[in-house]
Amino acid sequence: MRVSQFAEYQRIASISRDIFYNRKLKSEKKQPASKLHLMQAIIESFVDGIFILTTQGEVVHANERARCLCQELNEGIDKDKVTDEIWRICESLTESRQLFPNQKISIESEIETKSSVKIRIRARWLEANESNDNYLLVTLEDRQQTNQSIAISEAKKYGLTERESQVWLLRRANYSYQEIAEELYITINTVKKHLKNIYAKQVLTNNEE
To answer: Do the beta carbons of residue 32 and residue 130 sit within 8 Å?
Structure first.
């Protein structure tokens, strides 16, 4: 899987028949079509980009989020950096299996793109069936999106007000007090006041659990 292959992810992933599920259908343990559709729907529902690769680096399947990330990276001219890191991790995973054949190992790395987006890359082995076909499962996690999801969940958990939620969302995104104030058109003292209330609500909620 080199740069040229990475640029074609979107095209390869949009082929009319999903190779991965097609191979499973040809295996001795066939599954009902409804289960296969359910499995594919689960993969598509993930907020992370998901690639299923062969040990030779060929793309077997990519979900919608993975295709969107590829498109964004292509537009931002970050594909070379991400491609090299994905390939490095996959090679390390392959080598680790030779050294530790009986252990389930996953390898991860984090890189920052030119647009300041942090992408966490994880790779692990995926044994699709009882045959000797082995695949690599690679996930791409947009750290900013993950932090936003966590902030939204915490806002609900701690019962934050609308304004407190806005402040916490920005704080979770590593905004400084000054940047939060400028973004929300409030003073730094107001930002500090909101954060003080947020931390108090967190302590109260955690003590009740």
So the answer is: no
